[in-house]
Amino acid sequence: MEFRGSELQYLQWSGDALAIGLFEDAVELTGELAQLNERLSGALQELITETEFKGKEGNSAVTRVGADSPIRKIIIFGLGKKEDLKLETIRRGAAAGARLAKKEKCQTLGLQLPKLNIAPAEIVQALVEGIELALYQDNRYKSEPEDKGPQVQQVDLLGFPNQEEAIARARQIVSGVILARQMVAAPANEMTPMAMADTAVAIASEHGLAVEILEREDCEKLGMGAFLGVAQASELPPKFIHLTYKPEGTPRRKVAIVGKGLTFDSGGLNIKVQGGIETMKMDMGGAAATLGAAKALAQLKPDVEVHFISAVTENMISGKALHPGDILKASNGKTIEVNNTDAEGRLTLADALIFAEKLAVDAIVDLATLTGACVIALGDEIAGLWSTSDALASELLAAAEKAGEKLWRMPLEEKYFEGLKSQIADMKNTGPRSGGSITAALFLKQFVKDTPWAHLDIAGPVWTEKENGYNNVGATGYGVRTLVNWVLDKA
Ligand code: BES
Ligand code: MN
Ligand code: ZN
Questions:
Q1: Residue 314 CB less than 6 A away from ligand 1
Q2: CA atoms of 217 and 197, how far apart (whole Å)
Q3: For domain 2-141+152-157, which architecture applies?
Q4: Confidence band (pLDDT; 50, 70, 90) for 27?
Q5: Cβ of residue 366 lying under 6 Å from some atom of ligand 1
Q6: What's the fold here for domain 174-489?
Q7: Which of 346, 402, 445, 481 does the annotation list as catalytic?
Q8: Residue 384: DSSP 8-state
Q9: For residue 120, which phi and psi values (nearest 5 degrees)?
Q10: pLDDT tens for each residue of 181-195
Q11: Short-list 378, 381, 372, CA closest to 430
């Protein structure tokens, strides 16, 4: 697919489908739209009337237009109320327009928006993100692609000339989101710890990052007993990934991004019996977002040093499996009584966070499909945010808002740490059922001493069962765009 910014507008452009964004109050055709309607012999007005199109967000419609017209189809999509317009509305509107163009077998698409009070580069970036992410189709595991037929090949962004830079930036970001989607969607028999490490090495060599893969013995030497405890039942060797992006010159800031990387979570001996086990290939969604962000940032080249870290393994069952009640020692010397082997993510993250802090960074952000409790609290679309730093929390909330990735701050209620007190060790890995996402965050907090730290529980939004805006059924790539905005400080 190719994107072009074009100075042409409305019917100056010719091609298969012209997609027009309309505000809720602007379905009365005036000015340029009235002219367009006239040139189309009233087809635009007919389409609006017949489909009872109101311009609400998510509304879209299409019709064929006369043979003497420079376009074959006209598509309309809603932008909601003018005063509520956000970049996310543009992303989702463009996605709706592009989906219709594809369904209607259009190969060239011209996209037109009303005049807006937002920087053109921002609009163009949002348009390209929305269209590319919506049209991405994962055919890797089909013997025949499901969407044969013509594909959208050329997209012209009408009224946006000279936007090559914004288009390129959007495509670099999308390449990271799609990598994350592909990794999360890949089954556990393919996306193994070795495959994750190979992916990190490939990103490093393609985009010029430094990469270090620590093997089991290396992790043993570092005393990573918590991570290795989780890994011990798997037939597959664990991999500890550390990718580094360094800008030319002195970095403005040094940060670490840590992702939970469970390529499969069976629960261990506390096996998942109440459902959910069949989707646990997604339990490396945090690591996927981390590597996706690495791919995007390596191309965007910010003036920030970024460390991308993941302790990758599977949580399996065998004669070597952790017993409930086992005591593990993390690399900072703290001991953990594993009262539930299914609370494994926090064990792997403990050693990863300790490793990150040793790098003397200014901030650490972790992303993890950590708890079902967070999904119960916030639902499928919103990730939870916990942070020891109000400043870091606001940066992340702003970055997420700009990305259109929903994030909600949750309390690090110290009193609840009582639920993790152990008779025999420094702490247990699991507290009571109530407040389960909060005690999980409090557990992680034990492994960060004084670096500003934030934890994102992405168990809900990493996957979707329904097509939604520019997300298709399956992996969403959640987190990549928030991380990119955060590192670039573009919120
Ligand atoms: N990977 C799961 C959390 C999860 C649940 C992710 C649903 C995505 C969707 C995590 O390792 C887990 O099993 N958490 C337990 C913790 C409990 C044992 C304290 C949970 O949420 O049930
Ligand atoms: Mn688990
Ligand atoms: Zn898990």
A1: no
A2: 16
A3: 3-Layer(aba) Sandwich (3.40)
A4: low
A5: no
A6: Aminopeptidase (3.40.630)
A7: 346
A8: E
A9: -55, -40
A10: 999 999 999 999 999
A11: 372
